[in-house]
Structures are given as C-alpha cells and as structure tokens.
Amino acid sequence: MKKIILTGGGTAGHITPNIALLPALKEAGYDIKYIGSKNGMEEGLIKAQNIPYEGISSGKLRRYFDLKNFTDPFKVLKGLFEAKSIIKKYSPDIVFSKGGFVSVPVVIAAALSKVPVIIHESDITPGLANKIATKFATKICTNFPETLQYLPKNKAVLTGSPIRKELLCGDREVAKKLTGFGDKPTLLIIGGSLGSVIVNNAVRKSLDDILKEFNVIHICGKGNEDESLIGKPGYLQYEYVDKELKDFFALSDVVVSRAGANTICELLALRKPNLLIPLSGAASRGDQILNAKSFENAGYSKVIEEEDLSNISLSAEIHKLYKNRQNYIDAMSKSDANNGVSNIIKLIKQYS
C-alpha cells in the first residue's frame, strides 16, 4: 500500500481541499497521514475524518514588521526537524500540500528526504508560503489559468479546485425541514471560516429590508452570533456549518460570500448566483480582489468592493442579483471548470 502525507492549515481554505481528496485517495488504496500545526483548527477537522494527525511547531511568515518575526523562524526550524522525523518514520511515497504556514517545513523536509511533493495554489497569485514551497515542489496545481504565468512552466499544472463530493449532493427538502423556512427564496451568506465583522454588520443593518424578499441563512463565524436576532422570523445564524452545508447550498437561490478561491470555485461548480465581497487590499495581499475580478469578468459573479459596502449597497445589489440570477447561471453553465479531484489524484498516482 502506498503512503501519502497531506499538509496545510491555518484557515479552512487550506484544509477543506485536502478533505475533498480523502475519498478518492482511500479508493485508490493510499494510507494517509496528516501533518498540521499543534492546536491548529485543522486538527479537529482532520481527526473528525478519522485520519491520523501529527502536530508540529509552526511560525507565521510575515511581510510586515512584527517582533514575532525574530522568534517565529526558530519555530519554523523546529517544525522542520519535527516534520523530517515524521517523514523518516512514516516513509511516505509522496506529500501533498494545500499551503498555509505550517506546510512550509513539511514541504522542505520532504524534499530533503527525496520524497516527491505536489502543492496546490488556490489563488490567482501565489501566497508567500507557496512561493517558498515552489522551489521544493515536483508539481504545482492551480485553480486559475492566470496563475500559470507566475509559476515555473515545467512545474505548473491547471487542475482546478478539489471540491467535496458531498457538496454536490445537497437536498432542498432536508434543508427546508432544518430551517423551517417558507416559500420565499433563500439567501445564503458566508463570511469565511473566521467570519467577517464588516460583512456581518452590513447584513444585520440591512436585514429588515432583505427579509422582505428572502429567507436568510447567515454563517457568521465563531463568536459572531447576535443574540438579539435569535428567533427572528426568516433569519437563522450559525457560527460554523459542516454537514448541513450541502443542504443549505441546495436550498439557496443566491449567495453572498467573501472571495476565497475554494469557496468561489464551489459556487461555480454548484452554479449558484453570487455576490462577492473580497477582503480589502489593506487587510490582505489582495488575492481575493483578483479572484473576484476574474469571476466578475467571466460573468459568474457580481462584486462589491469592501470600501463600497454599506447596508444600502448590500441590499440593493442582492435584489439586483436575484432579479438577474439566470444570466449568472447561464454564464456558469458554459464554464468547463470541473471538480479538480480527479486531475490531482492522477498527478499523485503519477509521481508516487
């Protein structure tokens, strides 16, 4: 039996694509181990899949000044030795990395141990962790064709995003029973795995107007529930959704979301008309802005920049999106973007 180590962590975007690969890897006969950070959010998500998990020391790589920049390199170095020890003991045939800071020592340790490494870059431009990992990678998978120009030609492969199979199997009737919603169209709001205060505030300020036309499922992030809105007719809020998400997607007629690459690729695969609110360039490296513009140019999404977001603009754009939803569905239906699982599994088989 061949062995594979999966790695990636920090946010759900670095974890859920790995989870999407698990059924196909098991079907292909791979023994699987996961390396993530100690006490990172990935630990609970991976252990819930009954996959053996090893935690290593992890330091954040920053582009800005911070006192931790003087101590975190030592954490990364410690993580490198820990990863190398795990790899030596487990002796994998291949490593697959979804990125995030914890993946860097794992990728380097694998390369030093002469184990083939495949990494996946979700965004249009590579993040810092994957920029470092690129030097040690055998192949680099991408979601967007635009990404290929930033990567070595002999390594880059357009595979698409691995999408969890269960997301494509949602049941509207199950969701109706879960929510108790009536016949109004349903608006699903996703603020990212950590939630978004800006999006949450705009939603709640415009909620009375939105509820005139829609029932609302609001995934607001941990610690972001508003107790004053509990029990409000037509409005349900959740800190995090796991098993129910597929059914909520099936029930939703339109979606408001951040523009993380994995989420928008799921929306494309599900053909869900969507309004994207990318994380601002002031609070990020601007990857979500590029992702959103790519989808807007393709006719898949409507976009509001965070700086233009208000309760008035949000409500108005949601109503416009719903009115013109068929145009977005038609554009997405013409896309040849497919679930990237099969493409990635082929590469893993080829190099392991």
Automatic annotation (TrEMBL):
Binding site for UDP-N-acetyl-alpha-D-glucosamine: T11, A12, G13, R164, S193, Q288
Protein's UniProt keywords contain Cell cycle: yes
GO cellular component, one term: plasma membrane
Domain Glycosyltransferase family 28 N-terminal: residue ranges: 4-141
Membrane topology: Peripheral membrane protein
Functional pathway: Cell wall biogenesis; peptidoglycan biosynthesis
Residues covered by the Glycosyl transferase family 28 C-terminal domain: 186-347
Reaction catalysed by this enzyme: di-trans,octa-cis-undecaprenyl diphospho-N-acetyl-alpha-D-muramoyl-L-alanyl-D-glutamyl-meso-2,6-diaminopimeloyl-D-alanyl-D-alanine + UDP-N-acetyl-alpha-D-glucosamine = di-trans,octa-cis-undecaprenyl diphospho-[N-acetyl-alpha-D-glucosaminyl-(1->4)]-N-acetyl-alpha-D-muramoyl-L-alanyl-D-glutamyl-meso-2,6-diaminopimeloyl-D-alanyl-D-alanine + UDP + H(+)
EC number(s) given by UniProt: 2.4.1.227
A Gene Ontology biological process term: carbohydrate metabolic process
InterPro entries on file: GlcNAc_MurG, Glyco_trans_28_C, GlycoTrans_28_N
GO molecular function: UDP-N-acetyl-D-glucosamine:N-acetylmuramoyl-L-alanyl-D-glutamyl-meso-2,6-diaminopimelyl-D-alanyl-D-alanine-diphosphoundecaprenol 4-beta-N-acetylglucosaminlytransferase activity; undecaprenyldiphospho-muramoylpentapeptide beta-N-acetylglucosaminyltransferase activity
Function: Cell wall formation. Catalyzes the transfer of a GlcNAc subunit on undecaprenyl-pyrophosphoryl-MurNAc-pentapeptide (lipid intermediate I) to form undecaprenyl-pyrophosphoryl-MurNAc-(pentapeptide)GlcNAc (lipid intermediate II).
Annotated family: Belongs to the glycosyltransferase 28 family. MurG subfamily.
Protein name in the entry: UDP-N-acetylglucosamine--N-acetylmuramyl-(pentapeptide) pyrophosphoryl-undecaprenol N-acetylglucosamine transferase
